[in-house]
Amino acid sequence: MGVGHSSLPSSVDSLCINVFKPHPKTSALYNPTPQKHLFPTKKHSLFAGLKIGSFNHGRVPGEMEIQKGIAAAQKPIVDFHGIDEGLIQKIVYDALVWSSLHGLVVGDRNVQRSGKLPGLGMVHAPIALLPTPFPESHWKQACELAPIFNELVDRVSLDGKFLQDSLARTKTADAFTSRLLDIHSKMLEMSKKEEIRLGLHRSDYMLDEKTKLLLQIELNTISSSFAGLGCLVTDLHRTLLDDYGEELGLDSKMIPGNTARLQFAEALAKAWAEYNNPRWAVVMVVVQTEERNIFDPDLTWHCIPYLGFTYNVRSIRKTLAEIDSEGQLLPDGTLAVGGQAVAVIYFRAGYTPADYPSESEWSARLLMEQSSAIKCPSISYHLAGTKKIQQELAKPNVLERFLDNKDDIAKLRKCFAGLWSLVDLDIIKEAIEKPELFVMKPQREGGGNNIYGGDVKETLLRLQKEGSGEDGAYILMQRIFPAASLTYLIRDGICHKDHAISELGVYGAYLRNKENVIMNDQCGYLMRTKVSSSNEGGVAAGFAVLDSIYLT
Amino acid sequence: MGVGHSSLPSSVDSLCINVFKPHPKTSALYNPTPQKHLFPTKKHSLFAGLKIGSFNHGRVPGEMEIQKGIAAAQKPIVDFHGIDEGLIQKIVYDALVWSSLHGLVVGDRNVQRSGKLPGLGMVHAPIALLPTPFPESHWKQACELAPIFNELVDRVSLDGKFLQDSLARTKTADAFTSRLLDIHSKMLEMSKKEEIRLGLHRSDYMLDEKTKLLLQIELNTISSSFAGLGCLVTDLHRTLLDDYGEELGLDSKMIPGNTARLQFAEALAKAWAEYNNPRWAVVMVVVQTEERNIFDPDLTWHCIPYLGFTYNVRSIRKTLAEIDSEGQLLPDGTLAVGGQAVAVIYFRAGYTPADYPSESEWSARLLMEQSSAIKCPSISYHLAGTKKIQQELAKPNVLERFLDNKDDIAKLRKCFAGLWSLVDLDIIKEAIEKPELFVMKPQREGGGNNIYGGDVKETLLRLQKEGSGEDGAYILMQRIFPAASLTYLIRDGICHKDHAISELGVYGAYLRNKENVIMNDQCGYLMRTKVSSSNEGGVAAGFAVLDSIYLT
């Protein structure tokens, strides 16, 4: 499920902090990694005019305040105490110039016409100034998981009964999932087979501080966002460390390479080639309407152009309403939109109820699903990525229904956080007693809907009282407590030093036909970091920035 | 003298149309180049939501209106009649995405904070959608002239008496030139020698339609702008023709390569190396204050970073006021600013009176001139680029004082338009009678001050009546009438088809030490195109866009 692109700059949903339930496997105390890199205080006040300020107060925090803040917070993995402010100013300036020159930009919400067309109302993307330390072992673990999740989604998608049964209670409580299930049912009735299947996924993780476990937050199987901008931040950080690494005591080679956008383009092109007939068919990107599309500089800017440049594959952009009015199903199953045959459909829209304001959009979705075009994702892949399925897969002996390899199953299970449906009375009781250790996740997409802290208790009590079946719309998840580390975050040209927590997303690309798996790869990553002024209760106020990782 | 960066989007000064005086060498009627490229009307309505509109009315012009406009105007060199609007929409979309991803951006005047820092309030640069046809012979001529002008400026700069004498009348009429001359006088008095001399120039031309002559508009010896963005537009147009050339009947190889920004960076780095002692000295870019610096994404973003990336040369940015307060002259002549030795000074500010609001800025300029730092430009180079000197050099037998090579002299003379001082009574009489054939140019810099049409007559009559000596502040120039051709211009995301005229600027880089010329190169080019709704009188309303050339 795609994190809405518009949610990044200020919303918290894209970096949700989940309820923590002590993991049975470990109770070791957190032992921070020894400080590897110390920063010299060499003076480099080369650029004037830059303000290092606070977003909250619009003023420069005093040294005392910073020191106090640091003392009160977790011990950071990399120590930013010693960096000279003049040097930071210079790096910030260079980072902003680099961002402007390399398309690391997003729409500026303060500019009305932003996002109506490319090239208007742009501002640099919110970014971390320097990469965030991340243990190499956990990085490797996350990378290894990508092809296993790819395969799991594919296997689950083939089990229509499992999807329908697992989501039966959700169906009664969530209208959106219900409509998706209706389309899925129709496909089952007509025995529709997806012989060529393309998945472009992103699995999101947080590193739990106390257990030192890499735990999955969610798996996105539709509209996995930021594959483009994430790569650019990696390039930016590598460039900055090439220039300033010596002074900072950091080595650019410790930032893993990130070619997600190229690999996604490759997967789309390979799928297009696999469709094969006719060769002049296009890749169709399903986009949001102009009104809703606040800004989407990511996939459509950073991946799709490669289809043309590198693979000579033509692409078109259509809204769901346009597909409804211009689309038709030819007798051989070909989807034609505006007179053009469509080989591959990439959904950059359609993951949230707001994308379906009328029956017209649902009609378009059904039309596409009935066609022979390769859908990224198919309705089955879309459903396989729901939170409810994530929770079902975490039940004992469920993974075994889909995968044969015991090692793979063990690897998956290791990254599963505690996940429960609201039929588990023991867990509901525990969550009412200790709501701070849980997060309630509604099936609804688009972010910002998770329930934390005291609200968990209130909502559970209300649902118990009402007994309306609405509880089918939620799952309960262990809350994860990642470690906070001191970070420089830049938004709107202002650099702000604060404690922040991070979420790592790893992209995966999967393509297969009737006989063979053509592609099953891990494809780069996305690091997002957000201010956490408190690591204790609720979701901290703050904003998420794009980041990269520095292996430790 | 640099065209103010802020003048591009809407001002007319950067594409001044000069008064025409029939050239004695030719009276041939204009014979348009035969149409080489016809555009097929292949249907490609691939992208939705783009508006092809009119800037003046904010509405889509009807086909009738377009046809009518075309019929009334000059016959275009390349015929845009046949291009399908759907194809244009798709190319526009791609052009906007490409611009956003490659730093072809400027500050958005509608966004208040734009230009305060890099990365804020950006919008795609105003651009022509496709390159503008330009005769290969004239292109080669302009390129050949670059090193000759480089040498001429250097020779003129060495003749302090010529500069002082030529500008004596200007001095009494123009306070800014007077201050520059004062500094120049002081240098003459102290026998200050510039042993290492660096020039980064741009010579601007228009192609006169009736005479088919390439005629010089002006020579910029300080702050020659757009070396960065100009290169990017060339890259954009080549990319678009690589993608759509077949459909358009255009070949990307006919767009000359443009590496001005890399060559300027190379020249700055070579100058830095030539300074040699100490090796840790920096390149200092003199910048405008934050208040005045509406946006300067060009040299400081597109050239200066290469100094670091490619040559490992450190650069700093300082305003004139900062240089005054932080700068000092060491006993050996070294300029130190903020404790750092300066090897090379690049002036991105200081070319206009507005950059000198107090004595502090003049004091900084003097301090720099007294130092051993390599100044780009020195006060002599700066003065050698004034309009008055341009006019003096056009007088008979003046070029011969500075250059030996007769071929070079002939080449320069061929590109000189008619230029006169206001002591030439015959010309003043002619200009009062036929003001539409002349343009009056004040010495004042910063653009927008040229006088056209009826105002020429009025101003000349007033000056004659007053006899105040103010006439020393002006020169008269032949007005040049370039051919208009049908062009697609894009600003603020809107594509507008109109008749437009173009100005070609060719960059030159020159570096020498006491013994040898180290660099004397032509360095890429800048094409600027502006709407000309009428090719007859005055300056047409319109805006200038960045463009490239397509050799015919």
UniProtKB/TrEMBL annotation, chains A, B:
Cofactor binding summary note: Binds 1 Mg(2+) ion per subunit.
Keyword Glycosyltransferase: no
MF terms in GO: ATP binding; glutathione binding; glutathione synthase activity; magnesium ion binding
Gene3D superfamilies given in the database record: 3.30.1490.50, 3.30.1490.80, ATP-grasp fold, B domain (3.30.470.20), Glutathione synthase, substrate-binding domain superfamily, eukaryotic (3.40.50.1760), Glutathione Synthetase, Chain A, domain 3 (1.10.1080.10)
InterPro entries membership: Glutathione_synthase, Glutathione_synthase_a-hlx, Glutathione_synthase_C_euk, Glutathione_synthase_N_euk, GSH-S_sub-bd_sf, GSH_synth_subst-bd, PreATP-grasp_dom_sf
CDD domains linked to this entry: eu-GS
GO cellular component: cytosol
Binding-site list for substrate: 202, 222-225, 291-293, 348-351, 528, 539-540
Binding site for Mg(2+): E218, N220, E445
The enzyme's E.C. designation: 6.3.2.3
Pathway in which the depicted protein is active: Sulfur metabolism; glutathione biosynthesis; glutathione from L-cysteine and L-glutamate: step 2/2
Residue ranges constituting the Glutathione synthase substrate-binding domain according to the UniProt record: 281-384
Cofactor list: Mg(2+)
Positions annotated to bind ATP: 218, 387, 441-450, 452, 477-480, 503, 530, 536
Catalytic function, reaction form: gamma-L-glutamyl-L-cysteine + glycine + ATP = glutathione + ADP + phosphate + H(+)
Cross-referenced SUPFAM superfamilies: Glutathione synthetase ATP-binding domain-like, PreATP-grasp domain
Keywords tagged on the record: ATP-binding, Glutathione biosynthesis, Ligase, Magnesium, Metal-binding, Nucleotide-binding
PANTHER family, per database record: GLUTATHIONE SYNTHETASE (PTHR11130:SF0)
Protein family per UniProt: Belongs to the eukaryotic GSH synthase family.
Name this protein carries in UniProt: Glutathione synthetase
